[in-house]
Write a structure and sequence with these properties.
It is a single chain. It is built from twelve helices and 15 strands. The strands form five sheets. The chain has a four-stranded antiparallel beta sheet with strand order 1-11-14-15, covered by helices on one side. The chain has a four-stranded parallel beta sheet with strand order 5-8-9-10. The protein is α/β, with parallel strands linked by helices. Helices cover 33% and strands 16% of the residues.
């Protein structure tokens, strides 16, 4: 840290964001999403494929790429879907998409059929690409929408069990071992997921994973009857959170990704049961993590920068440049104000939280793309 409490560090990279365009631009656009990313200190993000049309062909992906070329203020790299229409049935033409997409994912839903996932891994491995999996077993959901734990039982909510996540991870890790696929697990939230991935790494499986700021800092004990606390996976138990932190510290968890998932105010106004799943995350990620993990002595500032800037680029083979950097004030506290977000989405469980680590300036390719 410099004498005045300001630092310059590599700009951040988020491999899991939703910019909603094409198809749902009332929630977010490439322009507003990329500006929000710049405001959060990011110069590279990877956009998920739950769009309309789904980027399952060069033609459909090309629609998004045209918008990116026109509107993005930072480096935006789209995923292609694993299966046609994200329906989990037919693997896409990986050869036709691999040079245009950063990786392959059906994010928003898990691939339910193991034989389809095996074929996807074999094909994607054959082209030297990464498969990024949203792991969720639909058979175990039972209409749940928050963690199946103490809060759900006390307040009469339907819960999402942990096995709906880790059971599919367990299946996929064995498939990844057998196929040699470069496998990345999205937004892990349970202690079982951490342990399964830890063991797989010990066995030499080519696996990486991410978790989100909210899973590291919040638990079901923080829930309120408000849509801003609803996301998928849900906020889990304290023991899950503790296991995620241990996974960060021992290297099991490779990176932090926000799963930035903006919705309209109306869609997030229906309480825990009725609201859409997903929160806005790009503009809050560094300050909440710096405040909650670094200032408390859980991890070092260098480790946080590695998790947010270095490791994502390394795993996904994204460019590194000294002309991409972020300037941050670590010394002056401020309160998160969702009303001031650049993003179209304003729903965050961190609203009103006093934090440190305000982004002052973000530089991409030597050009200032955000300045406070």
């Amino acid at each position: 840290m410099s004498e005045n409490g300001k630092i310059k560090c590599p700009s951040f990279c988020d491999v899991h964001v939703h910019f909603r365009e094409p198809g749902y631009s009332y929630k977010e656009t490439i322009l507003t999403g990329s500006k929000a990313a710049a405001a959060g200190g990011y110069t590279c993000v990877c956009t998920m494929p739950n769009l309309n049309p789904v980027p399952d062909s060069p033609e459909n992906l090309g629609i998004q790429l045209d918008i990116i070329r026109r509107d993005a203020v930072i480096d935006v790299r789209p995923y292609a879907s694993i299966t046609a229409g994200r329906k989990g049935m037919q693997v896409v033409d990986v050869a036709a998409l691999k040079g245009k997409a950063v990786a392959f994912s059906d994010d928003g839903s898990g691939v339910q059929d193991a034989s389809v996932m095996r074929k996807a891994m074999e094909t994607i491995a054959g082209h030297g690409c990464i498969l990024a999996a949203h792991c969720e077993d639909n058979r175990l959901l039972h209409g749940g929408y928050i963690h199946d734990g103490r809060y759900a039982r006390a307040h009469g909510h339907r819960g999402i069990c942990s096995e709906s996540e880790w059971g599919q991870i367990e299946r996929d890790l064995e498939l990844a071992r057998e196929t040699g696929c470069a496998y990345h697990v999205c937004h892990i939230s349970t202690k079982e997921s951490v342990e399964l991935i830890r063991r797989a790494k010990d066995r030499g499986v080519n696996v990486s994973c991410e978790t989100g700021p909210h899973y590291l800092l919040l638990t079901e004990d923080d829930l309120l009857e408000e849509g801003r606390f609803k996301m998928n996976p849900p906020l889990r138990s304290r023991s899950d959170r503790d296991a995620l932190i241990e996974g960060l510290k021992d290297g099991t968890i490779d990176m932090i990704a926000t799963d930035h998932a903006p919705h309209s105010a109306e869609e997030k106004s229906r309480g825990l049961e009725g609201s859409a799943m997903g929160i806005t995350g790009l503009e809050t990620a560094f300050p909440v993590l710096y405040t909650g993990l670094v200032r408390t002595g859980i991890i070092s500032l260098d480790k946080l920068v590695e998790l947010m800037a270095v490791a994502p680029r390394k795993r996904f083979k994204l460019p590194v440049s000294e002309e991409d950097y972020t300037e941050i004030d670590l010394s002056e506290p401020f309160r998160i104000d969702s009303g001031s977000f650049v993003s179209k989405g304003h729903s965050t469980p961190f609203d009103g939280m006093e934090v440190y680590g305000r982004v002052l300036r973000t530089v991409y390719g030597g050009k200032t793309v955000y300045s406070l």
